[in-house]
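Forum: Protein Structure Q&A
Topic: Joint prediction for protein chains with partners

I've read a bunch of threads here and the consensus seems to be that you should model interacting components together rather than docking separate models afterwards. I'd like to see that in practice. Below is the full input, 631 residues plus whatever partners are listed. Could one of the regulars post the assembled result?
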Amino acid sequence: MLPARILLKDLVELTQSRVLLMLVIVVPLLLVLLIGNVRVREPVLRVAVYTGGTAEAKAGGANRKLEELRGLLDEWSNVSVTEWTGETPDLLERSKRERIDLLANWEDGWHFYTPQTHPYRLQYIATAAQGIVVSIERARRAKESAAKLDEIVSLMAKSSGKQGGEPPEEGTPREAQAEALKLVQEMKDAEEKSTATPVPVIAAALYNEVTRYFPPVSQADRSAVPGLIALIAVFTPFLLASAAFVRERETGMLEVLVLAGRRRWPALVAGKLLLPLLVAAISLLLQLVLARSFFAFGLKPGLAGMLALQFLAALGSGLLGLSVSATVRSQQQAYLVSAVYLLCLMLVTGYVYPLEQAGAVVRFASHALPLTFSGPAFEGWLTQGAGPALFPAEAMWLAGQCALAAILCMAALRRFERTL
Amino acid sequence: MPPSLSSDSCLVSLRDVEKRYGGKVALRGCSVELRRAERLLITGGNGSGKSTLLRILAGITPVSSGQATVSPEFDAMRVCYVPQVGGLYQNLTVIENARALSHLVGAETPKDLERNWFVRDLGLDRFLQAKGAELSGGFQRLAAIACALAARPQGLFLDEPLTGVDPERAERLLEGLKSPGGPEFLVVTDHSSARFPFADRIVDLAQGEMR
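Posted by a regular:
Agreed with the consensus. Here's the joint model:
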């Protein structure tokens, strides 16, 4: 009951503060409208063609194949084709580094590979180039197999006598044979378990599927709208929660609130979280209406699941905000912390700068912020219909962040209580 | 085993209580009981620990050491607290403040507020639609007390309620507080005992200790 009472009181207070209401509801809507037409010019599908650059490759039709692919894909504004030549020892590593979606390898008989591992990205890449399956796992297995083969060969050599006609060492052949057989069995097992089998790409299928999933002018063209909505959904709860306790303290109402709750801090925290979460939910729904009405981002299946995922992100952010509120000494400090938090959300979560190209410290720090996980999920859902079931890892991370933020919040409140 | 209360009428019992803020001791060796149907006055000079003791009795502030025991009856009571400074939501009107506070403490929404003595006699009837920030300092104090009284509390904690209030209105407030039908118990702090002759018991503090 107490949380509901606090919510109602906070709601009355919010409705009486036109400036705050404008800031948390109207301004985000205006932002979505204003920058909704901004499009990220980055291609949606990046294809690399590896020819090796050798005369043999060129004679073998590498150039012809490359031109054929260019002809197929270049006309689509959001698909880019680049040629890789020269010696590249680890193609998959290079693909990861350069954020390539599809890699066509001449040396492998034009099999296509993708270094993308994220399920939602993978789903669309795999569908786009029909029949193309992940190759990372296959490459890893291939490396393992090659190493094991070497070992088997050496063991077999031991069991049948050393090269050069030397007699076998005593006691060794049987053990070496058993070891070799064991390795062969391991390889067979691994082969059976492997589901990543690349198949040659069919040009026509690629053409059709790319047209379907990556049309040059449509909502699939990367827009600022989904990312912005996800950012606002995470930031709004923090902004409101960061001032929750400190505002009560400044007006002398904190003691009244604490007495009303009889120092039951979990109930007080729940009450103080309800308004930020409610405002974030209203704001998110209004922005979804705008995104649909003005920018053709239709609602995709799995809305409830995606909202649940965003709720987790908002909850974690709100709890962090309450921790701040219990720590700072004034509303001014709280809003300054909120500004810093917004900067972190923009710079350290992949919202502006891709995490793949960021340094190790930034990538590590990004795990502490909810937008790192809620942003790509929401973007994938709104642009490409990637359902929430494709984001179990994100959901786990967000749940973990919530648990940690709750612990942090209670610790901050224990410290805060001593100052009452 | 938790310490027991000395009698059935005892609502809150403090034994040898100490309160520190960082390294600073605000209250030391304080033993007080709050009883039912009692008007308790806490007096002392500036910085003597009056507000701290009041907040500890109300159950707002945890003690650093010593024993603070609260009866289940006290826990079930509707209790209000009016701080020394503020006590009103500045962007809400007096009526909205009264409703918000009543709602927070689980009381019924006050009706016909202007008919109550704490509105009529204190001259707040013409300010009911004014926002907290629009009131003078004295009226803000009176409005905060009126909002607390509008929630029909069974117990009331007032921290220096007469600060900034003119003598005429202060007189009316005290008359109203001691009249029957008010809170079951009342705890007030003030620097002087002379202004509260109706107090049943006085706790006098000096530099955080009971005199």
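The interface with chain B takes residues 1, 5-6, 8-9, 12-13, 16-17, 250-253, 255-260, 262-263, 417-420 of chain A (CB under 8 Å).
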